[in-house]
Amino acid sequence: MHVGIGMFRVAITNLHAELICNKMMSFSVDQPAFDVLDNIANLVQETIDESNVNRHRILGVGVGASGLINHVTGVNLRAASLGWHDVPIRERLEAQLNLPVCVDNNVRAMALGEAYFGLGRGVDVLAFIYGRIGVGAGIVVNGQVFRGSGVGAGEIGHTIILPNGGDLCRCGQHGCLETLVSEPILLQEAQLLADKNPNSILDIHLSDAESSPISGMFAAAREGDQPTLGMIENQMQYLGLALANLVNVLNPELIILGGMFAQGSDLILPKVEATMRQLAFAGLGENVNVQPTGFGWRAGVVGAASLALKVFFYEASRETAVSNI
Ligand SMILES: [Zn+2]
Q: How close is the Cα of 95 to the center of ligand 1, in Å?
């Protein structure tokens, strides 16, 4: 199960993390956390019922959730965008579902999914960079999720890019990467351009209620709207800069882009890659392969399923597994 900001998706998969069936639901970020978790539990139950999969054949439930997660206790310590603080996800869902549950950060789960079943198979060091409302990284080193000394490794969205004069971030600092390349920021910039150029390709796409604003923005760029292309290139230099810093510290073989960065990868990737290669130390960037995820919208649930497989299938016992994922 993937829990994002304002939406969650439940999927049942086989042992190769291939989807058997899936369901998605939106929620208001103002909803109390326990109400959201109860809705999630109901959707899991519904999905099981409709799939005709025998409940006894379900190994367990993997949850990839937004925010800082203690994977040992299954507690969401802090998810600023959801207003969650010390939410015991595992305990609540296990009580509701009567199935074993394991929880980790959703982008870490996506990175694990790539390492097991995606572009990261056979790769020693990879980073998965997810961009949507927030921006985060999941890091896998030698087949293991890297968490750092606590639970905070991979908070690339709060890498400070513009310390002087940068916009205030929801974390309290100024000029974080998230204030430059997240979906709300790109849409804010796009709306300013559309207001300046009424009836432009961009303005028409953003006014189209049939498609999401971010899809409209990418569509306008693909149709050659120059101000939109220029704005995307300009903002994406900052992502390239953040990735150059990541490359200098981590020296990965592979960087995978997910979420909005994958959705617009044809527009985003060339600038990001060129900036990263130009700025990384001593040509370190030359050997880094940068790719959009091949899983598309499934990346979240494939990641969560990989987490469940790791904890409830590959490892001998849950107690040892939970501390080793
Ligand atoms: Zn920040």
A: 34
Output the six-digit token pair for 131.
């961009």
Task: Give me ligand 1 centre to Cα 162, in Å.
Answer: 11
What is the ipTM score, two decimals?
Answer: 0.99
* Structure confidence by residue, pLDDT tens digits, 177-236: 999 999 999 999 999 999 999 999 999 999 999 999 999 999 999 999 999 999 999 999
CA distances from 44 to 1, 24, 74 (A): 8, 10, 18
CA 83 to each of CA 79, 113, 323: distance values in angstroms, whole numbers, following the listed order: 6, 27, 27
Please count the CA atoms within 13 angstroms of the CA of 73 that sit on its side-chain side: 11
The residues, any chain, with a CB within 8 Å of residue 209's CB and separated by 6 or more, are none
Choose which CATH entry (3.90.79.10, 3.40.50.10860, 3.30.420.40, 3.30.1240.10) describes domain 2-110+297-324. Answer: 3.30.420.40
Question: If you measure from the C-alpha of residue 173 to the centroid of ligand 1, how many angstroms do you get, rounded to a whole number?
Answer: 5
| Cα(93) to centroid(ligand 1), Å | 30
φ/ψ region of 32 (left if φ > 0, alpha if ψ in -120 to 50, else beta) reads: beta
* 187 alpha carbon – ligand 1 mean position (Å): 18
Closest by CA to 61, choosing from 239, 292, 318, is 318
